[in-house]
Structure formats: C-alpha cells, structure tokens
Amino acid sequence: MIRLATALIGASLLATPALASEKDGEDCVRTKVWDAYGDGWHIRTLTSTTLANGATNSYLVTVYQGNEYKFQACGDDSVKNLDVLLYDLDGNVVHRDATENAQPELSLTPESTTTYYLVVYARETTGDGGVGVAVTYR
C-alpha cells in the first residue's frame, strides 16, 4: 500500500505543469543589463513578477531630459509574446515595442522630463509566466 501511495504521489508530481519562474525572467533581463554596462548603460530598476495570460503589471517611472532609456522585459519559457508600453499620465499609449516575442525592448530619449506608466503586458502565455523587467539609462 505504501508503495502504491508513493508511486501515485511521484506520478502526480511528474504530471504537474511547471510553475512560473520569475527567476528565469529576472536572470534573462539581468544578463541583458550586465551586458550593456560596457556601453555606458546603468540600471535604474530591475524587478520580477508573475503574469497570467492577458495580464499586465505597471510601474510609475520618471524619465529625465538628457538621458537615453531602455525598457526591457524577459519572459520564462511559458511566455510566448510579451509587450512593453509607455502610457502618459492621461492613459494614452505614447510608445510601444513592435515585437512579437518574449523579450521586448523599447528605447526612448525624452525631449523633456516626464513621468510615464511602464506597462508590461503578457499578450500570450501558456500559463502563468515569470517575467523580469529592467529600466536602464545612459
């Protein structure tokens, strides 16, 4: 009986779908950030989150005139299409990436100091996705 119970528990663990890995998403974006340090980029923000299919997460970010910015995100293996968008404080999309993959990037050199909402949108996932997000500047 104990062998049967052990076998059933083992089989159920093997059949359990992989959980979202924020660590995978964060490791991916962290690598991009570190690789850019030699080109003069500095980190402003680096975080991770878990997003379900169709879900978003937003971050308030102020960008300063005279700097160049990159907004990057990386999804784990369950993320098929991830979007990065910048909204103004009135809720209008003012910048968005044009990719259809799990590693979007958006560049911006603001003409004035401005505050935006950085929105990361899990457009297509096969479950909950681990996502890393970074804002860098130079």
Features:
8 strands, Jelly Rolls, 138 residues, alpha+beta, single chain, globular, four-stranded antiparallel sheet
Summarize the structure.
The chain is an alpha+beta fold and 138 residues long. The protein contains two helices and eight strands. The chain has a single domain, classed as Jelly Rolls (Sandwich).
List the helices and strands and how they pair.
Blueprint: H1 2-15, H2 22-36, E1 42-51, E2 56-63, E3 69-75, E4 79-87, E5 93-96, E6 105-108, E7 114-125, E8 129-137
Task: Explain what the structure shows.
The chain has 138 residues and is an alpha+beta fold. It has a single domain, classed as Jelly Rolls (Sandwich), CATH 2.60.120. The protein has helices at residues 2-15, 22-36; strands at residues 42-51, 56-63, 69-75, 79-87, 93-96, 105-108, 114-125, 129-137. The chain has a four-stranded antiparallel beta sheet with strand order 1-8-3-6, with helices on one face. Strands 2-7-4-5 form a four-stranded antiparallel beta sheet, with no helix packed on it. The protein is globular, with a radius of gyration of 18 Å. Residues 4-18 have low confidence and may be disordered.
